Amino acid sequence: MVALFTLLLLTIGGFLIVSFFLRDEDLVFKLAFGHIVGTVIFSFTVFLMAHLFGLSSLTVYGGLIAFGLFILFLPLILPSRESALQIFRKEFRENSELKSFSNILFYGFLMILMYFFFRRAVFQTNQGIFTGAAHNLGDLPLHLGIIYSFTDGNNFPPENPSFAGTVLTYPFMVDFVTACLMKLGNGLVETILIQNLFLILSLVLLLDYFVFKLTDNRLAGKFAILILLFCGGLGFLEFFKDYWQDGRSLTEFVWNLQKDYTIRNEGLRWGNALTTLFITQRSLLFGFPLTLGILTYLWRLFSSEKDEKFAHRTAIFFGLIAGTLAMIHVHSLLVLFLVCAVLFWFGLKRWKEWILFGLAVSLIAIPQLVFLMSGSAVNTKNFVGWHFGWDKGDENFFVFWFVNLGIFIPLLLISLFLTAKKKDMKKLIFYVPFALWFLIANMIKLAPWEWDNIKVLIYWFTGSLPFVAWLLARIFESGRLSMKLIAFVCMISLTLAGALDVWRTASEQINYDVFSKDAVSIAEMIKQKTEPDALFLNAPTYNSAVVLSGRRSLMRYTGHLHSYGIDYEAREKDVEKIYKGGAAADALIAKYKIDYVMISPEEYANLSTINEDYFQKFPLIAQVGAYRVYKVR
Questions:
Q1: Which pTM was predicted?
Q2: Residue ranges per domain, the chain?
């Protein structure tokens, strides 16, 4: 409950801050974006304090106090006639959308579903730590390793716990927030669940508002939410085929789904936003709503030609907040860069605000990027290269995209045509940078693993949502039953495959054992018997027990390291040599200054040779079942 109370305080504080800069924006936007802003300011404050004093409950409480003082003094810095609380009371009384029964029903049902979905991100029993998300098996240990490196490894300045001796370049702020909440006495599972629910609620509210501002249609916002959360392409056709061949009743078949219907090794690669992105890539779950709030402001800046009160300070505020994306989700910052570059040339009437926004972004983002790249092991040559068709493999380009997104692109093209016919040029120009990202992501590989282009493609998809959702809303609202039926069939086509995958997760049909109970126990012993900055040798796998201890590893999962663009091959060979023992092992242990060696079922499963006799000469400091830790230095 401490985590819940803390996040509510950050939401209230963030609302007050946003209200100082956007007085006339909708209450829902200020609350949803306020949570993100409050979390950003709080996390960066504590992050700076942790470099000086380490991360502890006192540091976190100090950050909360500093955050509160900032809010108290803000009215003195930015005087205004009306207080934010007065505006809140006034808007709450007048905001019929906020209090409408249909909205309460829609978001109430959605958040109940999100609760059952996100509680499967990580859960713990007396048998160990599990995940109930099909694509979270590798990502969960990555995030847990970062979280525990902050809570138990005193990892400041942040070092990559998966590749010791190098800077942590992975966007880690969402995991740092988790660590802060855990320092207040919250458990891991509870903290991640509550944090995820706050973030997904902010995300859907901000998406609803973003689409409404572009389309002036409330129903379009709701359609956009459903399409984003349950997107999935034509995989539902395979579902019907499997059901027909299975022979069981529909109810029994749906309660025992054996595979995903939005993603597979070939053909279907888009996946579903919830099951392949928001539950696995926690940095995107934080960066996405932050970016939506910035995009809403950029549309306001671009579409309005009139001078606004406090416009300059608002531009600086949003620029400063946008700059924090460098450590929250750098791909989102990259997306905003192209959006701003395009819109700037078509919005020169308010050039001062664009310049102020850009300078504010640079003021915050550039020092972060310098900080992250200094001492980094990332080889930038691994990130960019020509690669046509994203992840289509040998598939025909047009067939690939139709299979993966179904009728989404045809609906988008129809909507763009109708928008052009209405000569609504501002909306078309606003869409240009999103369309460019689709072209770029289909021509250039922006990460070592080409599928990671999804991190910018999801923004093309989001930028397209207002057009598709507006078209479907117009069809549905036409008044004719046949047109309502067409809109309904289109929505089912766009969301059924994704809904099946979300259902498979939320209904507890997936249970992956990530860390055994012995792994959890040995990790607790490591925390008690080793130094926080100790360096461990373990197998290069994702689920080493060392992850849960917060200690650094010489090397962990090669899949993660490859996706970072890290050249790990030489170190991987050295790991093999050490486990083989002998004089070469002695020299390499000294070279890397390894403190402890883990020998467990993971080492035997992932290494070709383990000479355990060699390690008998070292003190055995911890043992639980088949897990053993030797002190080698």
A1: 0.96
A2: 514-631
